[in-house]
Amino acid sequence: MAEATAAYKVIGTRPIRPDGADKVTGRAVYGGDMRLTGMLHGKVLRSPHAHARIKSINTAKAEALPGVKAVITVKDFPIAEDRMANLGEMAVNVKLLSNNVMAADKALYKGHPVAAVAATSAHIAEEALGLIEVEYEVLPPALHVLDAMKETAPLLHESMTTTELGQKTEKHSNIASHLRFVLGDPAQGFRDADIVIEREFETATVHQGYIEPHNATALWNEDGHLYIWTSTQGAFVVQRQAAEILGLPVSQVSVTPCEIGGGFGGKISVYLEPVAAVLSRKAGRPVKIIMSRIEEFEATGPTPASHIKVKMGAKKDGSIVAAEASLMYEAGAFPGSPVGAGCMCIFSPYAIPNMQVDGYDVVVNKPKTAAYRAPGATNAAFASETVVDELAEKLGLDPLEIRRINGAKEGDRRVDGPTFPRIGYMETVHAALEHEHYATPLNGPNRGRGVASGFWFNVGFQSSVVINVNADGTVALVEGSTDIGGTRASIAMQAAETLGIPYEDVRPTVVGTDGIGFTDVTGGSRTTFATGYAAHEASLDVLRQMKERLARRWDGEMEKEFEGQAEREMARITPDDVTYTNGVFKCAKDAGKTMTFKEIAAQMARMGGPITGRATSQPRGVGGAFATHIVDVEVDPDTGKVTILRYTAIQDVGRAIHPSYAEGQVQGGVVQGIGWALNEEFVYNDNGNMVNSSFLDYRMPTTLDLPMIDTVLVEVPNPGHPYGVRGVGEVPIVPPVAAVANAIYKATGKRMTQAPMSPGYVLSKLLE
Amino acid sequence: MPKVHVQTRINGEDIDFLCESRQSLLEVLRDDLGLTGTKEGCSNGNCGACSVLLDGVLVDSCLVLAVETAGKEVATIEGLASPSKLHPLQQKFLEHAALQCGICTPGFIMAAKALLVKNPTPTEHEVRYWLAGNLCRCTGYDKIVRAVLDAATVMEKA
Amino acid sequence: MQAFDYVAAQTVDEAVSLLAAKGAQARVLAGGTDLIVQLREGRRRLDLVVDVKKIPEVSTLSYDSNNGLQLGAAVPCYKIYGDATIARAYPGLMDAFTLVGGTQIQGRASVGGNLCNSSPAADTTPTLIAHRATCVIAGPTGRREIPVEQFCTGPGRNVLGNGEFLVALRFPAPPQNFGAHYLRFIPRNEMDIAVVGVGSSVVLGADRATVTAARISLGAVAPTPLLVDEAAEALIGKPISDQTIAQAAAAAQAAARPISDMRGTIEQRRHLTGVLTRRTLQGAIARARGERVNHA
């Protein structure tokens, strides 16, 4: 389907995004910018304790404060059912999701919502929070994954028992589940190995760090219809979560996605929408809630802290013959960490015949974790890619060489079962080996170069697209994928390419649940892939309809006399006889008959009425993504501070529809990974309170902390997509932590087994 | 507490409003004056999303009380483009794909504007140093720095 | 944020009487980069905010090579380092004033406000101490002046009494062969609170090879910024050498009383104290010798 050498008119160019002017002028409406007549401002009261029983809540004084229009607690929510709900491809437990949105009988993390207020100003709402009286019975918290796994740990959920290798047990524990993947015979593999390396690693809780806080505006009107405006990665997913939590049929919930200021996986689960909705119903007015930055850190969905053990064995010739890993991930207050995804990705860049990977999903008294860009994979790669680096060193091999020897190819099997289709990992290794960065010597004391690879499987899921042809030959493309990073452009470009019209003639609009068919989240590296796929198919539908009309007209125009039905049929012009190239339809049976796309558009009303193309997609041919990164660092031996000198990120993107936005995804993921590597972590005190809940002390990289980030977009087209697209957005965050660790090793001779590798930690290793 | 009457100038227009002393300039711009182009990211001066110019000086509007703007000139993102024409910084941000989600963009553009008034031909280091108070989580800054340097060249020629 | 009244005082006397009347329920507003955050987060609750930026003495700065620098307490950082003459005369002060927060913060934040916030980790205080700054304080009983090293009395606490506020800081003109340097350690390259900060100054003899006076001040390693006499004594009267500098650094380390918190551990801070003392002394000596040392 996808041709590696095809020349495209639109794909591969770098046009300006359609929402560009609105975004650079500040006109674009993000969720926080929403204004509705009579709108109230909401604020949430949150538990100050990491673990506590909620004995009573008295809201009388808050309700009496002038300006307060509604105060709610869990009593104002329907009783949540303990069952799984299908939200498309995401499945959630309704009771747990609801409990996270508003605590029931227990507060399970500092910041857990226990009540909420709607008032005429945000300041009054905040004052009202101070008047709500809550009686807590404080309980000891379980705060670290290893401590929470112990028999003696305080239990978060009294009724929770461990699901052990797929079977529910009677064992009450904070370990929600233990899963295992096995391939081959690891024990034998290790016996066959000439060298075995076994290491343990710790990573800290890390946040997506989107600059726009969560927001939600809700209007539950007198008809019982609920309208929600929110900055979200998926309007439909919000719709379904809200419907489940509030006990409404989906048809009674309309979600309009506003522009969104970053998500990275953190704006998929709902936090504020049901709260704003219940406040709106009680107050009889629209209610808007915006989180503060402190609330973002304490009460949204960071990615797990983890403890990971990795053991790998190789032969002298460099082939890795056995690998084992044990991944223990903090799920936060409710089960559901991405430990499974971490297990699926950890050894996936390599063809290893014998593997066992164990994953543990462990609850702790911290906010429930959510997806963060290739969730679970960065933690895992930190561990495995460091061990691969050590294997290479001990075998006397260049670190890229050991990857070349063992790199995964089409047909190799992942530890979780699937075999790889056509993939581009080896191409990234070769590109790294041949890159000028790798060939340039790194001179100077205290400097080191590190490499690391990574894998993310990407997803397909569902998308819907409608294309309406305008009378002037332009088209309106309607889709439901919120545009976080330029996907309006990349989707419009695919439609323009298929339709054979200029990019500027495609006007994309992102609409909500009332305006388009079901569309899954903008996430999972799926948007350019799956919504683009649907746009391509919808474009084909437009062309199909145009061909049908042309065939009908051209057939009807034939003036020739026929002798008999058979000759008539032979001469009949069918849609198959209509070809389309470069904007022009031609009749294969009559060279004199042609019409342009614009001409048909102008005559739609006389040729059968409006033309609307439509398609839905649920593509199965998802291409996994691989990356190999090279980083040069310098370490100040007196302070432990690490400076990134140079970074090159090489990634197989299948086909870069809009290269600037593909590069941007890579650069953004790399820098998040650098922050994860160097400084980002949630710091908790012994009571389970996060002490660094601001951008001052949760240290994300600034412009001054980085060089330019060079990207190499390798294109091994994905056969599962008409234009060869592979998901781009997530795998860039997978290698950086390991790459930086390997570089620090080269610079200092010390192996890093803890992330972040902040100056204090590096200094302590240097002073050992 | 009675509200305060403030008279100020915003984007070259005389504007007056009523506000509480505790309201920041950011709040008044967004909630009372409908100028939502200036964004809120952290409300404690650590992300720069709320950057505006106050008498030509780059500041975080979350750390300025609205009452302090009496008699001063405020410049926000809404005042940058000319009718039907983007400012070179805005244009270059688009050409270089220097925005992905766009929430930090107004803050970055106002900060870059202040830089180029003070230093029309900055080096890459000077750009990075000046913009260290603006956080972006999407782009990794590479394309932002390139856009600012390119805009500087264009504006210098003009 | 709790509701409060706002008054822009026009004179020192007006500010004093407003502050005296309200006591702990009122506070001075200069740049607001500390105060507004504290109010928003509920760490301070006030009835009244007294804006002093309209008082000329508090908002202006002046320098001449005989009398030195008179710096109004509310002058924002960007105005100070933006004055080419002052920047040239006091590079050791500019080291710190260009570091406070980022560009936006420097557009509002003042040195006086940084001092009055009295954080042990304040970036400007060590270098103010190294430069022998004097605090000019106005209050109900009139004016008084104290050396800046006596100003802070504990984390967030200082000598200002009821109704008193800091009007200005005075810096002597730098003597011949004077050099100063401030460095701090932070995990990133900007925006962070100092893990450790050190401000050092030296006066060299005519031969520029001996130290005749020195001041070494440490930030973020004790409840208040410290002036370490023992570190100065390791240098004074002796020819400059790596050894005397190392001794000064060791004395600074010994004087440090750091705690472990989310920004650093005791061991790390003690180690960094030695490193930064050494580096700032090297920078101060270089500047005293007329060499150029860039801001960090």
Explain how this protein is built.
The complex is a heterotrimer of chains A (768), B (158) and C (296). With 768 residues, chain A is of the alpha+beta class. Chain A contains 21 helices and 31 strands. In chain A, helix 15 links the parallel strand 22 and strand 23. The longest helix of chain B has 16 residues. The radius of gyration of chain B is 16 Å and the shape is globular. The mean pLDDT of chain B is 97. Chain C has 296 residues and is of the alpha+beta class. Chain C folds into two domains: 158 residues, 2-Layer Sandwich (Uridine Diphospho-n-acetylenolpyruvylglucosamine Reductase, domain 3); 111 residues, Enolase-like, domain 1, CATH 3.30.390.50. Chain C contains twelve helices and 14 strands. In chain C, a hairpin with a 6-residue loop joins strand 13 and strand 14. The longest helix of chain C has 23 residues. The chains are: A alpha+beta (768), B alpha+beta (158), C alpha+beta (296). Chains A and B meet through helix 1 and helix 19 of A and helix 2, helix 3, helix 4 and helix 5 of B.
Nutshell version of this structure?
The complex is a heterotrimer of chains A (768), B (158) and C (296). With 768 residues, chain A is of the alpha+beta class.
Write out key terms for the chains shown:
heterotrimer; A: 768 residues; alpha+beta; Aldehyde Oxidoreductase, domain 4; Aldehyde Oxidoreductase, domain 3; 8-stranded mixed β-sheet; 7-stranded mixed β-sheet; disordered N terminus; B: 158 residues; Ubiquitin-like (UB roll); DNA polymerase, domain 1; 2 domains; 5-stranded mixed β-sheet; 5 strands; globular
Record the SSE blueprint.
The complex is a heterotrimer of chains A (768), B (158) and C (296).
Chain A: H1 20-24, E1 40-46, E2 52-58, H2 60-64, E3 68-72, E4 84-86, E5 91-93, H3 94-101, E6 106-107, E7 113-119, H4 122-129, E8 133-138, H5 145-149, E9 161-164, E10 167-172, E11 175-183, H6 186-192, E12 195-203, E13 215-220, E14 226-230, H7 235-246, E15 253-257, H8 273-283, E16 287-290, H9 293-299, E17 306-314, E18 320-332, H10 339-345, E19 354-363, H11 377-395, H12 399-406, H13 425-434, H14 436-439, E20 447-456, E21 463-469, E22 475-479, H15 487-499, E23 506-510, H16 527-557, H17 565-571, E24 578-581, E25 584-587, E26 590-596, H18 597-602, E27 612-617, E28 625-635, E29 642-652, H19 659-678, E30 709-714, H20 736-748, E31 754-755, H21 759-766
Parallel strand pairs in A: 1-16, 9-11, 12-31, 14-15, 18-19, 22-23, 29-30
Antiparallel strand pairs in A: 1-7, 2-6, 2-8, 3-7, 4-5, 9-10, 11-19, 12-17, 13-14, 13-16, 17-18, 20-28, 21-22, 21-27, 24-25, 25-26, 28-29
Helix pairs in contact in A: 10-11, 11-12, 11-20, 12-13, 15-16, 19-20
Chain B: E1 4-10, E2 13-19, H1 25-32, E3 51-54, E4 57-60, E5 73-75, H2 88-95, H3 105-118, H4 124-130, H5 142-157
Parallel strand pairs in B: 1-5
Antiparallel strand pairs in B: 1-2, 3-4, 3-5
Chain C: E1 5-8, H1 12-22, E2 26-29, H2 35-40, E3 48-51, H3 56-59, E4 61-64, E5 68-72, H4 77-81, H5 84-89, H6 91-97, H7 103-106, H8 111-117, H9 125-130, E6 134-139, E7 142-147, E8 152-154, E9 157-158, E10 165-171, E11 178-185, E12 196-204, E13 211-219, E14 226-227, H10 229-233, H11 242-255, H12 266-288
Parallel strand pairs in C: 1-3, 2-3
Antiparallel strand pairs in C: 4-5, 5-10, 6-7, 6-10, 8-9, 11-12, 12-13, 13-14
Helix pairs in contact in C: 11-12
